[in-house]
Design goal:
Blueprint lengths: L1 E12 L6 E3 L4 E15 L2 E5 L3 E5 L3 E19 L13 E7 L5 E10 L4 E7 L3 E7 L2 E5 L2 E5 L4 E4 L5 E5 L5 E10 L8 E3 L12 E10 L3
Length: 217
C-alpha cells in the first residue's frame, strides 16, 4: 500500500489572466461549472461548456473563455499532496491509501436531488471528494453531521456509512470525483447498509462525465 492525496482546487479565472500550465504526472479531472474554457493537451484542443469535464494525466494548458470561468480541478497525486506547488492552496486535500499493484479508475459524476431527496445510508467502494453546487445537503457519517452550502466540499472514505439529506425547499446537486476499483468501470459503486433500503425508490439521479482507467505511479 502507498500514500496518495486527492485534492480539489476551485479556479475562477478571466480571459485576461492568460493560460495556466498544468503539470504532467497527475491524474486530474477538470469540471467546468460556469463560463467556458479550452484545454490544449497532446496536440489537441478540447473546449468545455458548463456542466462538462475533461480528464488526463498529461501536461496541458488551460485557458478561460471570453466571459471567464469557474472550474473545479480535482487531482490524485502521490504522497501528502503538500509539496512542490507554488499555486493556491487546495479547497480540500484528503490523504488516501491505495495499492499500486491493483487496477483503479477515476470517476467524475454529478448527483442531483429533488427537494426532500435522501440517499439512504450507504457506502462506496472507494474514496472521493464532493463539492456542492446548488441547494444544501446534510451529511451524517462516523457519528457526525454537517450541513453544506454551495461551494463547500467534503471527503468520504468509501467504507464509512453515509446518510445524505438534501434541502426540503430546493433542488440540490454536487460534483464528485472518486477513485474506484477498475472492475466497477461502467457500474455503480454504491452499497446500501440496510437491506430494506435497497428496493426503496431512489430519487437522486446521476450524470457521469469521466469513467477512466488510471495507472498509479
Amino acid at each position: 500500500m502507498a500514500a496518495y492525496s486527492l485534492r480539489l482546487f476551485t479556479d475562477q479565472r478571466t480571459a485576461e489572466a492568460g493560460p495556466a500550465a498544468l503539470a504532467p504526472g497527475r491524474h486530474r479531472v477538470l469540471y467546468l461549472a460556469e463560463g467556458s474554457a479550452s484545454i490544449a493537451a497532446g496536440g489537441a484542443v478540447a473546449t468545455l461548456a458548463p456542466n462538462s469535464a475533461w480528464s488526463g494525466p498529461i501536461a496541458a494548458e488551460l485557458r478561460a473563455g471570453a466571459k471567464g470561468m469557474r472550474l473545479l480541478h480535482f487531482e490524485l497525486v502521490p504522497g501528502d499532496g503538500r509539496g512542490g506547488d507554488d499555486g493556491p492552496a487546495p479547497t480540500l486535500l484528503a490523504p488516501i491509501t491505495l495499492d499500486p499493484a491493483q487496477p483503479y479508475l477515476i470517476r467524475c459524476d454529478r448527483v442531483d436531488f429533488p427537494p426532500g431527496g435522501i440517499a439512504y445510508r450507504h457506502t462506496h467502494q472507494g474514496p472521493g471528494i464532493r463539492c456542492l453546487q446548488s441547494g444544501s445537503i446534510r451529511i451524517e457519517t462516523a457519528g457526525t453531521a454537517h450541513d453544506y452550502a454551495p461551494g463547500e466540499a467534503w471527503f468520504e472514505s468509501g467504507p464509512d456509512p453515509v446518510l445524505a439529506i438534501a434541502s426540503e425547499r430546493v433542488s440540490s446537486h454536487f460534483i464528485r470525483v472518486m477513485i474506484l476499483p477498475r472492475a466497477l468501470l461502467g457500474k455503480s459503486s454504491i452499497r446500501y447498509v440496510n437491506a430494506e433500503d435497497k428496493d426503496k425508490r431512489k430519487r437522486q439521479s446521476y450524470q457521469i462525465f469521466v469513467d477512466a482507467p488510471i495507472e498509479l505511479q
